[in-house]
Amino acid sequence: MSWTYNDEVMDRYQNPVKNGRMDDCDIKIDEASTTCGDKVVLYIKTNGNKIEDMRWEGEGCILSVVSTDLFCENSIGKDIRSIKEIDDLAFVENFPVKISPGRINCVLLPLRAFRRGAKEK
Amino acid sequence: MISVHGRKEDFPIFNKKINGKDIIYLDSTATTQKPRQVLDAITGYYEGYNANVHRSVYKLADEATEVYEQSRSNVANFIGAKDNEIIFTRNTTESLNLLSFTIGDSLRRGDRILITSMEHHSNILPWTRLEDRGVIVDYAGFDEEGHLDIGDLESKLKRETKIVSVTHQSNVLGTINPIDEIGKIVKENGSIFIIDAAQSIPHMPFRVRDEYDFVAFSGHKMLGPMGIGVLYGKYEQLDKMPPFNRGGEMIKDVDFHSVIFEDPPIKFEAGTPNVEGAVGLSAAIDYLKVIGMEEVRRHEKHLTSITLKGMEDLKSVTYYGPRNVEDRGGVIAFNVKDKTNVKRNLEKNNVKLDRLYHSHDIATFLDERNVYVRSGHHCAEPLMRSLGLSGTARASYYVYNGEDDVKIFLKSLGELDVQR
Fold first, then answer.
1. Of residues A3, A19, A100, nearest to B344 (C-beta)
2. Which of B47, B148, B227, B261 is the most buried (most CB within 10 A)?
């Protein structure tokens, strides 16, 4: 498609690996961005303060969908606190492609949802 | 006359290259680019006339006051109003808020305000703030093609309807509303008629008529600088209204506990005004007058017509608003079906839906080709809800756009159309 939507991004958009509901989750976070119309639900299974599994459901732009799917996958095995402490800029820089300033909120959607909704025990 | 390439040579920003390529600016509905003549007028004001207006008695201050008041006359003349019926504000939003905080505040419980479902937030929120005091806000709807439903408007016009405020041209659908017909109906009902002309006065001939009580528009959407807007008000209305802001300039006499206000329009211009803005707007009007507003309208109709035709040839592109270019301006909201092989299904009430690209993805895709369109809800969320959408991409045209811009835009859209 183009450099923002390279193969890695488009492949994950079309074939997300962590998409789908989780009925036995410990934490469920509803996130909606009214300005974009994005709606994402994060399902989190924990063991103590450790993430055992994370999945998502919802609709959004290509960047928020891909970022959410990557976030779910990369969070497994990590502490809730260590995820909450990820710096916004570092998170965006870690995204597979360079993002224009106007689209940073799309990429930050899952991290912001997690910070708001994931409580430590 | 506007050439097929538009009038880019007058606009310094089009000398700029991004990634070595020309800018295809298709977001004039949000704000317009500025011609050299406007930039020179602003610099010329500061180099030749700058002093505070309506205050001091020395020569330079007289000159500053004169250019400020000449700018007011030029605006008045452009829309067929009298000088003392033109109030300078910051923008359309402030013009409409001025009305809300003056005539709006005089409404009582049970009074009604009628607007439409295609309004920009700036013609919704100044009115819904009055719901707290028991004022009822009604919305007239529109049909599938985006034409205002006049029957619905008439049925919602009640004895209690004190204010009717309608956009002349939708900033999303592009629909040009029949304000003369609406004005007649509104006046028969004895209501105050307000027109949000932010998207019409910059793009077509406009003369105020007896039915129009107030008309609001912005300078930056018509080649002028940001931060200068206009409220036209019929003098007899302005004269009986209380002031909006209070402070410097807008008084005849102040005592410790009493005040006599200036006459309109100065009564509504508290504090040091935006003189550079007024001068810049006046230069923008001069620029538009040289082209002629009939010519501006003709040019935009032409660009819109070839755009709609081009879009109709792209299978995955849907545009919104009237099909007939006579009924719409040069603003085209659209979406693109996502034909990629996405595994997730979209369903609503067990019906499979077409998946659309998110409008921000469309805008970023076009951005990579130096084609600049707006995306999102365009400050018209109730309108988006009526369409069942969370957003659209939107292209819009002005005097500097030409057929070459439309061609590049459609070619880029075509690339998205055939992707994967």
1. A19
2. B148
pLDDT single digits (tens) B236-288 = 999 999 999 999 999 999 999 999 999 999 999 999 999 999 999 999 999 99
| Torsion angle (degrees, nearest 10) of CA B318, B319, B323, B328 | 180
Nearest by CB to residue A15, choosing from B343, B364, B416, is: B343
**B368 to A106: CB separation less than 8 angstroms, yes or no:** no
CATH number of B38-290: 3.40.640.10
Decide if B358 and A2 are in contact by the 8 Å CB cutoff: no
Question: What ipTM goes with this model?
Answer: 0.91
Q: In which domain, by residue range, is A71 found?
A: 7-117
The answer as to whether A1 is a domain residue is no
Q: Is B379 a catalytic residue?
A: yes
CATH 3.40.50.300 fits B8-30+292-417, yes or no: no
Cα separation, A49 vs A27, whole angstroms:
11
Give pLDDT tens digits for B125-152: 999 999 999 999 999 999 999 999 999 9
CA distance B372 to B364: 9
Residue B388's closest chain A neighbor by CA?
A: A37
CATH code for the domain in which residue A66 is found: 3.90.1010.10
Report which of B293, B289, B292, B281 is spatially closest to residue B86, judged by C-alpha positions.
B281
